[in-house]
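Researcher: Re-running this chain for the archive, since the previous output was lost when a drive failed. Same request as before.
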Amino acid sequence: MVSVRTSIGAAAIAAMVMALSASGAHAWTRSGGGIGPRGGTWSSSATGGCAGGSCSRSHSGTYVGPRGGVVTNSGQTSCAGGSCSHTGTTTGPYGGTVTRSSTFTR
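Model: Regenerated structure tokens:
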């Protein structure tokens, strides 16, 4: 099973990070990538931060299998006032897409 995460557009991520940074928020970024034991490659990135009692996270990623199949995954999670919501989309190597969303209340 392959677990890869992907994100909203780079411009949206940059705007979110800039907005959080401008307000003195606790913002973070991360990225990574590598090559698997059979030659598949992966890359992922995420940004997030908290300000004024709310937090958010966006992520994106791509996996290219050893035979060239591509899986992408993107999503965004935000929390405020004791409630969190998540939306995400995964697209498989044959074009099939799964979209999911959930809400969690503490």
